[in-house]
Design a protein that fits this description.
180 residues; alpha/beta; Nucleotidyltransferase, domain 5; 7 helices
């Protein structure tokens, strides 16, 4: 089997409207494909250091590379991919083919968390404990106030929280196979 790298991936935005809200950060970190342990540093492209357009231009080659170059790992990846696509169109950077993302391997833990929550969407996010008291909806306000250090801390904490849950899923999920 080919040794394919896994990368935790997420974005932070000023809201959830694909047409009017902006992407303010794009972040990723390689994780061990067997254990989920983080490898290397957390990479964060920040729009306040350049612009939304520039971070999209910088990241876009990762969206169109060969399907097996690496695997995106995250929670609610469909939102991130759709936001990236719409914001790229907004800046006339072209449109990446969402089918390309559909055809590549991605690991989204949102459906797993919903199943662990007895199939209920309400409250599934509680299965991924939060270290940082800031809520996602507060990020846009922090951005408007220029509190970038708080956004970075939120991203770092959210990444660590995700990786802890991902490591646990990697450890425990294989044992479920004996029940199938």
């Amino acid at each position: 089997m080919r040794n394919v790298a896994e990368y935790y991936f997420d974005t932070e935005t000023t809201g959830f409207d694909f047409d009017k809200d902006e992407i303010i950060t794009i972040q990723w970190q390689e994780v061990n494909r067997f254990t989920g342990e983080p490898i290397g540093e957390l990479n964060i492209l920040k729009s306040w250091e350049s612009s939304e357009r520039e971070i999209l231009e910088s990241f876009s080659p990762n969206l169109t590379c060969h399907n097996w170059d690496f695997i995106f790992v995250g929670k609610n990846l469909l939102f991130d991919f759709n936001m990236l696509n719409q914001r790229m169109k907004h800046h006339n950077l072209g449109e990446f083919n969402l089918r390309h993302l559909y055809e590549r391997v991605t690991l989204d833990i949102k459906p797993v968390l919903v199943l662990m929550n007895k199939g209920c969407f309400v409250g599934y996010q509680k299965l991924m404990p939060k270290t940082n008291p800031v809520e996602n909806k507060e990020i846009s306000e922090l951005y408007r106030k220029g509190k970038f250090a708080e956004i970075i801390r939120y991203i770092e904490d959210e990444t660590q929280d995700f990786i802890k849950v991902y490591q646990e899923l990697k450890k425990e999920m294989p044992s479920l196979a004996k029940h199938l």
